[in-house]
UniProtKB/TrEMBL annotation:
<keyword id="KW-0479">Metal-binding</keyword>
<dbReference type="InterPro" id="IPR008567">
    <property type="entry name" value="BKACE"/>
</dbReference>
<keyword id="KW-0808">Transferase</keyword>
<keyword id="KW-0862">Zinc</keyword>
<dbReference type="GO" id="GO:0046872">
    <property type="term" value="F:metal ion binding"/>
</dbReference>
<dbReference type="Pfam" id="PF05853">
    <property type="entry name" value="BKACE"/>
</dbReference>
<dbReference type="InterPro" id="IPR013785">
    <property type="entry name" value="Aldolase_TIM"/>
</dbReference>
<dbReference type="GO" id="GO:0043720">
    <property type="term" value="F:3-keto-5-aminohexanoate cleavage activity"/>
</dbReference>
<protein>
    <submittedName>
        <fullName>Uncharacterized protein (DUF849 family)</fullName>
    </submittedName>
</protein>
Length: 274
């Protein structure tokens, strides 16, 4: 097994607005440039949310297809589309994302309070996402916002078989207000519930970014960073761009003697088609 670190960049998300965060990549050009910059400093996978001409989150299928094609032709990154979207997105639109045929897609394993909102993921919907990804050969990344989501993941795998490629990869999204905290003891608790043979990455929202990154590296996990998850680099200092966050993660991974993996290595690790 490789000892390297998978670094995923989540550059945009659905929560920050361009007016609040002017350096957020929202156009296709901005996204492609960000992806190239992040690949150069150590990212191997990109978790993508897109925006419309009005800079607001959209799940428009034509735009998603165009985005997948543009990222494939300009980078070697593993392209993961978000099926989480924004908290207001209907299930049909979230399922339709898979028709853009990314390498990978997120699959959130349950509902969670999400700040003042609720991020809804009914059991039947989760099963349908898993089923359609299997059918299309899209490799899921199971998003875990709370510890109970890991119990649901075990149930999903027991009742509905392994995902496309046969490997299970989990992403712990820690520190969402309403979800699990972003700290070491919670990460250790999550490890105990992880399906056998699975790999995991972790990201900490807001100020939990650094503690979660250090804990994940120490525990043998992989990393997700980006402006979807945090827009401050340090106390009182705004993030300059996504590459700044990826470069820091890559530096810490090297210090941990687990240097960034190439996208080719990550395709092998996650069983994504080369
Ligand atoms: N935007 C959040 C409501 C995902 O990408 O799959 C959900 C989210 C998870 O970001
Ligand atoms: Zn996301």
């Amino acid at each position: 097994m490789s000892t390297g670190t998978l670094i995923t960049v989540a550059p945009t998300g659905a929560e920050s607005s361009k007016s609040d965060v002017p350096n957020l990549p929202v156009t296709l050009d901005e996204l492609v440039r960000t992806a190239q910059d992040c690949e150069r400093v150590g990212a191997a996978m990109i978790h993508v949310h897109i925006r419309g001409d009005d800079t607001r989150p959209t799940l428009d299928l034509g735009r998603l297809k165009e985005t997948v094609a543009a990222l494939r032709s300009s980078t070697s990154l593993v392209v993961q589309l978000s099926t989480g979207g924004a908290v207001t997105d209907p299930e049909e639109d979230r399922l339709r994302v898979l028709e853009a045929m990314p390498d990978s897609a997120s699959c959130t394993m349950g509902s969670v309070n999400f700040g003042d909102d609720v991020f809804m993921n009914r059991w039947e919907f989760v099963v349908e996402l898993h089923r359609r990804m299997r059918e299309r050969g899209i490799v899921p990344e199971y998003e875990i916002f709370d510890l109970g989501h890991l119990s649901s993941l075990r149930r999903l795998l027991d009742e509905h078989d392994l995902p496309a490629g046969g490997h299970v990869h989990v992403d712990l999204v820690m520190g969402v207000p309403g979800g699990m905290p972003g700290d070491v003891s919670t990460l250790v608790a999550a490890l105990r519930l992880m399906p056998e043979g699975s790999t995991f990455s972790a990201t900490g929202i807001g100020r939990t970014s650094l503690p979660v990154m250090l804990a994940s590296l120490s525990a043998g996990g992989h990393l997700r960073v980006g402006m979807e998850d945090t827009v401050s680099y340090a106390r009182g200092e705004r993030v300059r761009d996504n590459a700044q966050l990826v470069a820091r993660a890559a530096g810490l991974a090297r210090i941990a003697q687990r240097p960034p993996m190439s996208s080719e290595e990550v395709r092998t690790l996650l069983s994504v088609a080369q």
